[in-house]
Amino acid sequence: QVQLVESGGGLVQPGGSLRLSCVASGFPLDYFGIGWFRQAPGKEDEGVSCISASDGRTYYSDSVKGRFTISRDNAKNTVYLQMNSLKPEDTGNYYCAGGRGAPCDPSRMANGMDYWGKGTLVTVSS
Q1: One digit per residue, pLDDT tens: the chain, 126 residues?
Q2: Which of 44, 99, 104, 108 is a Cys-bridge partner for 112, taking CB atoms 3.0 to 4.6 Å apart?
Q3: What is the CB neighbour count within 10 angstroms for residue 81?
Q4: How many C-alpha atoms does 73 have within 13 Å on its Cβ side?
């Protein structure tokens, strides 16, 4: 059974850091592109970051570039999202998604993402 399970969310003050994890099961992670998405109340879904399967190419949205880092540990079947210098506007439900050969197209991050996690809540507030 294919599963993606996120963890690491919580409450953090502005300027703080969190590290999110996305643990995959039921498929070989090294063949899958994995993306992180977020949705805040009343806002549309936003593609935050993505890491491709073939060459590890990464993508970041303009809103998080320079503050967030995506990485992959295939041995642990886990993708991480390190979030630094967090801002209140980063608040939202963060979830990961993946698919075999998902291209991590910056213009259409969800393309090829066949499997989705349920999310982990990140709240940035003083």
Answers
A1: 889 999 999 999 999 999 999 999 988 788 889 999 999 988 999 999 999 987 788 999 999 999 999 999 988 999 999 999 999 999 999 999 999 888 888 888 998 999 999 999 999 999
A2: 99
A3: 27
A4: 8
